[in-house]
């Protein structure tokens, strides 16, 4: 196969794969990102017998087919054949890129496209005096530089087309490849503080000469902002000020310092950015004895980053800090236009391992926020606002809209695969009428500040929403990551990234909505609210994709000819283009298909529905995050997260994106991996 480098630069020689365990997630990611969640017992041991009874009576042939095939299906690296012709479907036209072998340390973009980084880890945001030198990083400098491991991304364009605001999350840090080994305890402590300052979010001004041209960022832009672990956040909603969120440093329970684990997110119709605090449990040492501690994966063990050794609040056993951990795990909202306004944490949206939140305005003007809890066998949630959205961009209107997520109703999804009994037939096609696979209910947990769950106050039901949801028969999902309504149709797409525990002894087996045991490759559900109203409490749903090697029997691409689709595994973040096509970025394909993670386009209607095509792939050991698709300008953006994550300071696995000699630093370029925001365009 030919690897097309859009930048026209020769590819570096391939490095041997080291320390990568095929067939499962990188051990480094497991440790640093998710606090080894997959090596600990699944924290959802709730019985939910009610739901199990329902599905056992509604076990369709599809479930049986997928469940039976899963164990036997061998993973075959497909393709590497000639690129297929450009898709005839609407939106951005491109020649499909074949899968990239997992050890290729490069961006691979379609023929005719170019790429370059807009912002890299360590780029100075406020003054060139803070220029990047990985051998001489300080916490003070890092707090003024672009952070590490960018995940959520948006490029919010001004009407003139030549200016934009870039907003990105910095989910976590890979200390093993960021820092030289610490020679002293003082140096180790400073590295911990640098890593802390590399978490959070960034807002950065961009400019360019004309629409469709590549962007440059502005050092010292007026709206440039870093949000870090020392930024004050306001708590809003029913749990703000409650006993459960008070600490010795904040006896009022209304102001939290910092945000962490910021994974995916969503830009609201009123122009703010929502960000999900995801794997917060990995940052806290806790007694680990309460039901809540167990349900949230909190334990009495040293954390991987040891922040508890430099700030007492990260050890819940310290006097006065038992509740600090309750102040993380929320959806945060940042107004990128207001650099001096404190960001907020919305308790009305519940506390869990928030992947992100995406908002749509319903037919009544109330807004709905869709959210996934990214944990094996955890739940899918929806918040519906009490007040209604106002059109306009004035400060008064924006101020009103920024209150919409403070008051409303929180629901959890219960899928009932009770009808109509749609099945995949022998050739893997759905019936022509496109019927739904089942129905579902949004079960209320808290309505307008009043708990609907027996035994829980509203504050308890929000802070420990997993425990509350356990009692109402919520459906256990295969790690719901990005959950996003299509702005063109209102249909909601739920990316379930994987769940290899499904069907293991003692664990729930295949269900209608999570139809594959040992679900290594994940699937995507399409959900349509009744009346197509985002505020509805009932919905219908169908499986859109069951990911994997299309040659395997246990895959499904909305009935599209499987010989024509790209192999895809572990769908994570999704986005829509201007034509309503779904774009999917992946996290995990190196471990499951031995190919680099990638970005795919899939049309959702017409004869091309289900035609998954790979657009680009990211370098070795990286995850494709934050896709933004501006197809009308032939511009695509991705956040390249954790390139070369399995390397070491003296033995790096990736040199993305600077690709200079290992260890060198010259002209702002470094010979080591730097998570970066990449723009892909047609020159
Ligand atoms: Fe941070 Fe669920 O991915
Ligand atoms: Ca993710
Ligand atoms: Ca998204």
Secondary structure elements and their pairing?
Blueprint: H1 27-32, H2 49-57, H3 61-72, E1 114-120, H4 139-142, E2 150-157, E3 163-170, H5 175-178, H6 185-197, E4 200-207, E5 216-217, E6 225-227, E7 232-236, E8 255-257, E9 262-267, E10 273-277, H7 291-295, E11 331-334, E12 344-346, E13 358-361, E14 366-372, E15 376-378, E16 380-388, H8 395-401, E17 408-416, E18 438-447, E19 450-451, H9 458-463, H10 465-470, E20 477-478, E21 480-485, E22 492-496, E23 523-529, E24 538-546, E25 556-557, E26 571-576, E27 582-586, H11 589-592, E28 598-602, E29 613-617, E30 623-630, E31 635-641, E32 665-666, E33 669-670, E34 676-681
Bound molecules: MU-OXO-diiron (FEO) and calcium ion (CA) (2 copies).
One calcium ion binds at residues 263-264, 355, 481, 572-573, 587.
Structural features, described:
There is one protein chain. With about 675 residues, the protein is of the alpha+beta class. It has one domain: TolB, C-terminal domain (Neuraminidase), CATH 2.120.10. Strand 30 (about 625-630) and strand 31 (about 635-640) form a beta hairpin. The longest helix has 13 residues, at about 185-195. The protein is globular, with a radius of gyration of 23 Å. The model is unreliable at about 1-25, about 50-90 and about 420-435 (pLDDT under 50). The structure holds MU-OXO-diiron and calcium ion (2 copies). The site of one calcium ion (CA) has 7 residues, from strand 9 and strand 26. One calcium ion binds near residues 264, 482, 573 and 575.
């Amino acid at each position: 196969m030919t690897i097309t480098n859009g930048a026209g630069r020769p590819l570096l020689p391939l490095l041997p794969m080291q320390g990568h365990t095929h067939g499962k997630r990188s051990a480094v990611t497991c440790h640093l990102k998710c606090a080894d969640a997959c090596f600990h017992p699944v924290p959802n041991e709730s019985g939910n017998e009610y739901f199990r009874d329902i599905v056992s009576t509604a076990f369709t042939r599809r479930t049986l087919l997928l469940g039976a095939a899963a164990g036997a299906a061998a993973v075959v690296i497909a393709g590497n054949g000639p690129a297929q012709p450009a898709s005839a479907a609407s939106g951005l036209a491109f020649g499909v890129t074949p899968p990239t072998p997992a050890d290729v340390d490069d961006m691979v973009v379609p023929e005719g496209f170019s790429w370059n980084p807009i912002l890299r880890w360590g780029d100075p945001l406020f003054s060139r005096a803070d220029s990047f030198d990985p051998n001489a990083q300080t916490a003070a400098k890092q707090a003024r530089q672009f952070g590490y491991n960018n995940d959520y991304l948006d490029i919010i364009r001004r009407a003139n087309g030549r200016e934009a605001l870039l907003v990105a999350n910095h989910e976590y840090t890979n200390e093993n490849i960021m820092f030289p080994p610490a020679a002293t305890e003082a140096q180790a402590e400073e590295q911990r503080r640098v890593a802390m300052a590399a978490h959070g979010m960034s807002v950065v001004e961009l400019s360019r000469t004309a629409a469709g041209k590549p962007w440059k960022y502005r050092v010292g832009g007026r709206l440039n902002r870093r949000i870090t672990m020392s930024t004050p956040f306001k708590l809003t909603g029913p749990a703000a000020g409650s006993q459960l969120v008070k600490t010795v440093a904040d006896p009022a329970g209304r102001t939290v310092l910092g945000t962490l684990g910021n994974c995916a997110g969503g830009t609201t119709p009123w122009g703010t950015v929502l960000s999900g605090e995801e794997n917060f449990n990995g940052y806290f040492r806790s007694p680990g004895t309460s039901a809540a501690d167990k349900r949230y994966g909190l334990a009495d063990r040293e954390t991987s980053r040891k922040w508890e050794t430099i700030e007492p609040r990260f050890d819940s056993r310290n006097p006065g800090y038992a509740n600090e951990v309750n102040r993380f795990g929320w959806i945060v909202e940042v107004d990128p236009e207001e650099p001096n306004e404190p960001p907020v944490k919305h308790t009305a949206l519940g506390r869990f391992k928030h992947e992100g939140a995406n908002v749509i305005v319903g037919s009544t003007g109330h807004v709905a926020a869709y959210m996934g809890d990214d944990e094996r066998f955890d739940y899918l949630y929806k918040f519906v606002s009490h007040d209604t959205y106002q059109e306009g961009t004035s400060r008064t209107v924006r101020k009103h809209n920024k209150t919409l997520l403070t008051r409303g109703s929180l629901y959890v999804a219960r899928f009932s695969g009770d009808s109509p009994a749609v099945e995949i037939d022998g050739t893997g096609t759905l019936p022509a009428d496109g019927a739904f696979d089942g129905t579902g209910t949004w079960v209320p947990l808290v309505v307008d500040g009043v708990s609907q769950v027996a035994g829980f106050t509203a504050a308890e039901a929000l802070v420990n929403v997993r425990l509350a949801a356990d009692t109402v028969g919520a459906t256990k999902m295969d790690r719901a990551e990005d959950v996003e309504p299509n702005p063109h149709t209102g249909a909601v797409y739920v990316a379930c990234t994987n769940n290899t525990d499904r069907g293991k002894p003692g664990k729930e087996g295949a269900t209608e909505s999570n139809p594959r045991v040992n679900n290594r490759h994940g699937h995507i559900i399409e959900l349509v609210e009744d009346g197509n109203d985002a505020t509805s409490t009932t919905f219908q749903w169908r499986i859109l994709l069951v990911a994997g090697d299309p040659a395997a029997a246990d895959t499904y691409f909305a009935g599209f000819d499987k010989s024509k689709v790209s192999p895809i595994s572990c769908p994570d973040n999704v986005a829509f283009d201007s034509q309503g096509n779904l774009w999917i970025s992946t996290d995990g394909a190196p471990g499951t298909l031995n190919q680099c993670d990638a970005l795919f386009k899939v049309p959702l209607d017409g004869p091309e529905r289900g035609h998954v095509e790979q657009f680009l792939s990211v370098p070795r050991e990286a995850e494709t995050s934050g896709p933004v698709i501006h197809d009308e300008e032939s511009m695509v953006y991705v956040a390249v997260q954790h390139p070369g994550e399995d390397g070491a300071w003296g033995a790096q696995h990736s040199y993305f994106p600077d690709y200079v000699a290992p260890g060198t630093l010259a002209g702002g370029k470094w010979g080591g991996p730097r998570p970066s925001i990449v723009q892909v365009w047609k020159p």
